[in-house]
Specification:
Distance between the termini: 12 Å
Number of domains: 1
Structural class: alpha/beta
Radius of gyration: 17 Å
Order of helices and strands: EHEHHEHEHHEH
Largest sheet: 5 strands, parallel
Oligomer: single chain
Shape: globular
CATH class: Alpha Beta
Number of strands: 5
Strand content: 5-15%
Helix content: 40-55%
CATH topology: Rossmann fold
CATH architecture: 3-Layer(aba) Sandwich
Amino acid sequence: MTISNHLYFAAPMFSQGDLRYNAHVVEEIRALSSEITVYLPQENEAINDKSAYADSKMIALADTEEVLRSDLMIAILDGLTIDAGVASEIGVAYAKGIPVIGLYTDTRQQGAENPKKLEALQTPAENQFHYVNLYTIGLVKLNGQIVSSESELLIAIQNFLQERRD
């Protein structure tokens, strides 16, 4: 018996870099198993062809419907701030009990044990680390986990699939 594993990929999608990175990660996820289907919003041309027109209600309804039918959300947490759409999608997933795996690859998190970096936190405007919104991070952690690399993400997805099989 095959179990349906529908994943929602929440990520910023407004630059060529975003679009390419999203497609790359989703390709790796899809290669994990034929049991996986991934909804990547940028592939939904009905609402995300930026040369066409889709109003806010069309976008909200289409993406929310996909979030609600998903078994797992993958959320890209990188950027100056967590993308507003991604944060909204995380909120919907949390409210519906849909687990979330957040991918946070920000390199400024490296060196967390470096005494100079830690000491610099005491000096105004010398934070060597990146701040992310703790409310949104809390929603992810309450019903999922945060990983810091693509390889960790793939392992976490495989673990999720295995748990669903057991």
